[in-house]
């Protein structure tokens, strides 16, 4: 604290030599001039003294017959004097501060976190439709309103938060799949009947009906769009004729043995990209939406892949500025015609097949049989490996659809 | 001439003794009434001195201070006056000996 105060007021280091430096110090203290860091050297003393004290030294020095030499100046008053000559530098500092304060009023970075099915672009497009984009004034964005609007616009967003920190807008969303299902159930409970129809051809292997009248039984072969469970429960009178139907939303677990056709063709001839070892890097500087490419050498490749690494300038974590540094890496390659050997092609075919099976399993399908054949066709134009086969699976099926009201008319007397 | 001088010193001593007596009896602070120096020694590296007249000698091994009732010799190594004002001063360095003369 004391040091800061001294720095603000300014002080100097002086060298005192001559007949009686001790008397010089005593006189200084008598006149209330503070001395500090008094160091003794063989034939002189150095000490620090305030600027005001320094100007009072002349009579003391004359009286004690000592010589006072100024060695070093410290503090703000001297700095200001120096800086007067460097007006552009000072102007630059103030300009920089002004630039930062002005820039901090705008959004320079938008980050989307937690989205799975909604892509970043989709959300950013929506935001730009709401006039929230790169370079929008922060005061025009109402986070609370935006939060609600996102939830309304994207149905399966169950929770979201809009955070504005520095010049960065962070949108965090959580998606849920439960919402649509519950909606479906709600709409079904309005007194209309719903049937369960088959959406595949196959044989029923297991069936548990919880609500509704089953029209098929285990072992039956059903075709696509055939009603399996009806939502219209007939109520018979004493004479065993149907008097009326009670409507319900049918509910059942139906497992069907069904077949999937699998087909895959692998072209034995293929072109491979053979990359050159050397990459070319092109740097460019972006300010706002403009981009300035720095000089680089000409791209000598005919075919090339390029990817850009974009970096935004930011101070601390959240204070982003509209200044970018882009690095474009260009990897040149040569196209080469190649042919797979049978073993290689077979391996690729197997890989594709396994991926297909995996995607089936992920859907909750139980695979009970595979019958796949690999054929090689060796025509002149094409050198192909054909994979064909059928996969037998047990799969849970059933689609809830509104019941057609014709049953009552047909069956009623 | 000599006789007159010795007579005045005896008179001074008597005056001082009576003054000391009064100060002791009234329990007044000795530094204010008699001009005794206050030396605050912290460890053997820092010494604060109050109530003095001035410096007589200052080197890195010895500092001689003129108090109101005599001289104080501070001996040591690498002695340095951190600050020096009319009221107090601070000496830092390795202090070996403090002597009253």
Question: What is the compact description of this entry?
Answer:
By secondary structure, chain A is an alpha+beta fold. Chain A has 11 helices and 22 strands. Among the domains of chain A are: 2-81, ACT domain (Alpha-Beta Plaits, 2-Layer Sandwich); 109-176, Ubiquitin-like (UB roll) (Roll); 194-251 and 399-411, no CATH class; 270-338, no CATH class.
Can you describe this structure?
The complex is a heterodimer of chains A (413) and B (101). By secondary structure, chain A is of the alpha+beta class. Among the domains of chain A are: 2-81, ACT domain (Alpha-Beta Plaits), CATH 3.30.70; 109-176, Ubiquitin-like (UB roll), CATH 3.10.20.310; 194-251 and 399-411, no CATH class; 270-338, no CATH class. Chain A is built from eleven helices and 22 strands. Chain A has helices at 2-9, 21-30, 51-55, 57-64, 76-84, 87-103, 120-129, 143-153, 178-188, 342-362, 406-411; strands at residues 11-18, 35-40, 45-50, 66-74, 109-113, 157-165, 168-175, 194-197, 202-211, 213-214, 221-222, 227-230, 232-236, 242-247, 251-267, 269-287, 290-293, 303-315, 319-339, 366-378, 383-397, 399-402. In chain A, strand 18 and strand 19 form a beta hairpin. In chain A, helix 2 (21-30) packs antiparallel against helix 4 (57-64). The longest helix of chain A is centred in the C-terminal third of the chain and has 21 residues, at 342-362. Chain A is elongated, with a radius of gyration of 42 Å. Chain A starts with a helix and ends with a helix. Chain B is an alpha+beta fold and 101 residues long. The longest helix of chain B has 25 residues, at 2-26. In chain B, strand 4 (62-67) and strand 5 form a beta hairpin. Chain B is built from two helices and six strands, in the order ααββββββ. Chain B has two domains: 1-34; 35-101, Immunoglobulin-like (Sandwich). Chain B is elongated and about 45 Å long. The mean pLDDT of chain B is 86. The interface between A and B is medium-sized, with 17 and 16 residues.
């Amino acid at each position: 604290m004391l040091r800061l105060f001294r720095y603000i007021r300014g002080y100097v280091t002086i060298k005192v030599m001559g007949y009686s430096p001790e008397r010089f110090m005593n006189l200084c203290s008598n006149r209330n001039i503070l001395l500090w860091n008094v160091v003794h050297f063989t034939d002189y003393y150095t000490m620090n003294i305030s600027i005001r004290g320094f100007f009072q030294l002349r009579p003391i020095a004359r009286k004690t017959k000592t010589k006072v030499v100024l060695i070093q100046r410290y503090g703000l008053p001297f700095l200001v004097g120096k800086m007067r000559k460097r007006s552009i530098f000072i102007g630059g500092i103030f300009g920089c501060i002004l630039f930062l304060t002005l820039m901090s009023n705008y959004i320079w970075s938008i980050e989307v976190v937690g989205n799975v099915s909604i892509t970043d672009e989709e959300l950013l497009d929506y935001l730009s439709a709401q006039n929230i984009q790169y370079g929008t004034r922060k005061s025009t964005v109402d986070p609370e309103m935006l939060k609600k609007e996102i939830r309304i616009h994207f149905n399966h967003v169950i929770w979201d938060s809009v955070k504005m920190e520095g010049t960065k807008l962070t949108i965090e969303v959580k998606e849920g799949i439960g919402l649509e299902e519950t909606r479906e159930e709600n709409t079904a409970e309005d007194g209309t009947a719903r049937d369960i129809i088959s959406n595949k051809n196959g044989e029923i292997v297991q069936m548990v009906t919880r609500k509704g009248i089953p029209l098929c039984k285990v072992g039956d072969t059903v075709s696509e769009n055939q009603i399996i469970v009806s939502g219209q429960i007939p109520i018979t009178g004493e004479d065993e004729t149907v008097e009326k139907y009670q409507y319900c939303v049918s509910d059942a677990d139906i497992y069907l043995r069904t077949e999937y056709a699998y087909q895959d063709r692998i072209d034995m001839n293929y072109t491979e990209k053979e990359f050159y070892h050397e990459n070319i890097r092109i740097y460019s500087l972006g300010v706002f939406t403009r981009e300035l490419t720095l000089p680089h050498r000409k791209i000598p490749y005919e075919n090339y892949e390029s990817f850009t690494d974009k970096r935004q300038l930011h101070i601390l974590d959240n204070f982003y500025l509209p200044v970018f540094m882009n690095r474009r890496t260009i990897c040149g390659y040569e196209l080469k015609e190649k042919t797979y050997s049978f073993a290689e092609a077979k391996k690729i075919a197997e890989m594709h097949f396994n991926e297909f099976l995996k995607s089936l399993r992920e859907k909750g399908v139980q695979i009970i049989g595979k019958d796949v054949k690999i054929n090689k066709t060796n025509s002149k134009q094409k050198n192909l490996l054909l994979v064909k086969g059928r996969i037998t699976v047990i799969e849970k099926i059933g689609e809830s659809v509104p019941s057609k009201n014709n049953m009552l008319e047909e069956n009623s007397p | 001439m000599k006789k007159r001088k010795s007579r005045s010193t005896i008179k001074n001593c008597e005056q001082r003794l009576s003054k000391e007596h009064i100060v002791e009896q009234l329990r007044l602070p000795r530094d204010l009434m008699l001009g005794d120096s206050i030396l605050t020694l912290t460890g053997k590296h820092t010494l604060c001195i109050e109530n003095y007249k001035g410096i007589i000698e200052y080197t890195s091994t010895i500092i001689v201070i003129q108090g109101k009732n005599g001289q104080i010799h501070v001996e040591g190594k690498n002695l340095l006056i951190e600050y020096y004002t009319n009221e107090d001063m601070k000496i830092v360095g390795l202090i070996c000996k403090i002597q009253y003369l």
